[in-house]
């Protein structure tokens, strides 16, 4: 009887251990699969958000550059809710020897999508992303610096306001040009200083570094500020900076 009981207990223990091992294996495999699916889902939703904000960027430029006084463009959003944010500022100044006069001073605002561990933002023509602490540039801001006999600087800025949360559809409208100065001829002995304050300052800095030739200017990033100094030495600078007022609201 005792031997029979012993064999019975051993059989039961072996069965329990086998089940535990199998269940443990299944649990481990399931956990790995869930993590992989989560990463894949995060990548997909991040990509969808970048697509939505890319469409908004295109719509903003379309309505901003239209010659009519007021126009609007409606686009569908597929990656979930978007948020209109009131952050960021751009200042354009001209001067020398520490004495500058302001040409433009505008808020930027933007549209942001927060997806799992991805964050994507549209800000003044650019689409930037953030994932695991690193920042990426999906779409660079439309800044142009061309040097020939003189240096031509084109800097369109888009100031966004609108509804706090956007769902399903977004209506992008242009309410006119807040500031549209004529092209500014900057004397050869003066410098153009562009300062952008943004939580995506590192992405702005990299964008400016790509756009500004080394012989024309320097880019300096400090925390959430980026400063660009444009000094074409003996050649004049022709500056064309424009601010467009943009609204983004629910469809």
Note the topology:
Elements (H helix, E strand, L loop, with lengths): L1 H64 L5 E6 L5 E4 L3 E8 L2 E9 L2 E6 L2 E6 L2 E6 L2 E6 L4 E4 L3 E12 L2 E2 L2 E11 L4 E3 L4 E7 L3 H11 L5 E6 L2 E6 L6 E14 L1
Parallel strand pairs: 10-17
Antiparallel strand pairs: 1-12, 2-5, 2-11, 3-4, 3-14, 5-6, 6-7, 7-8, 9-10, 12-17, 13-17, 14-16, 15-16
Number of domains: 1
Shape: globular
End-to-end C-alpha gap: 80 Å
Structural class: alpha+beta
- The number of E-state strands comes to 17
Q: H/E series, N to C?
A: HEEEEEEEEEEEEEEHEEE
Write down the Rg. Answer: 27 Å
Helix content: 25-40%
How many individual helices? 2
Main beta-sheet annotation: 6 strands, mixed
Q: What is the mean pLDDT?
A: 79
> Could you tell me the strand content as a percent range?
over 45%
Low-confidence stretches: 1-44
Keywords, separated by commas or semicolons:
alpha+beta; 2 helices; 17 strands; 30% helix; disordered N terminus
Characterization of the model:
The structure is a single chain. By secondary structure, this protein is an alpha+beta fold. The chain has one domain (44-250). The protein has two helices and 17 strands. β7 (126-131) and β8 form a beta hairpin. Mean pLDDT is 79; it is low at 1-44.
């Amino acid at each position: 009887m005792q031997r029979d009981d012993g064999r019975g207990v051993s059989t039961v223990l072996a069965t329990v251990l086998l089940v535990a091992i199998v269940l443990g294996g299944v649990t481990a495999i399931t956990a790995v699969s869930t993590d992989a699916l989560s990463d894949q889902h995060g990548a997909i939703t991040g990509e969808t958000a970048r697509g939505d904000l890319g469409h908004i960027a295109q719509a903003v430029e379309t309505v901003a550059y239209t010659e009519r006084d007021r126009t609007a463009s409606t686009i569908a959003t597929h990656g979930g809710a978007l948020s209109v944010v009131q952050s960021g500022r751009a200042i354009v100044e001209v001067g020398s020897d520490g004495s500058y006069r302001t040409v433009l001073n505008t808020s930027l605002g933007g549209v942001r999508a927060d997806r799992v561990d991805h964050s994507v933002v549209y800000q003044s023509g650019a689409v930037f992303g953030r994932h695991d602490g690193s920042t990426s540039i999906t779409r660079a801001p439309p800044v142009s610096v061309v040097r020939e006999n003189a240096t031509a600087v084109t800097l369109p800025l888009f100031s966004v306001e609108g509804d706090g949360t956007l769902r399903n559809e977004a209506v992008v409208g242009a309410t006119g040009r807040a500031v549209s100065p004529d092209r500014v001829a900057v004397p050869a002995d003066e410098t153009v200083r562009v300062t952008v304050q943004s939580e995506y300052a590192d992405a702005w800095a990299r964008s400016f570094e790509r756009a500004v030739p080394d012989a024309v200017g320097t880019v300096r990033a400090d925390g959430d500020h980026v400063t660009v100094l444009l000094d074409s030495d003996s050649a004049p600078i022709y500056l064309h900076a424009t601010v467009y007022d943009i609204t983004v609201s629910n469809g």
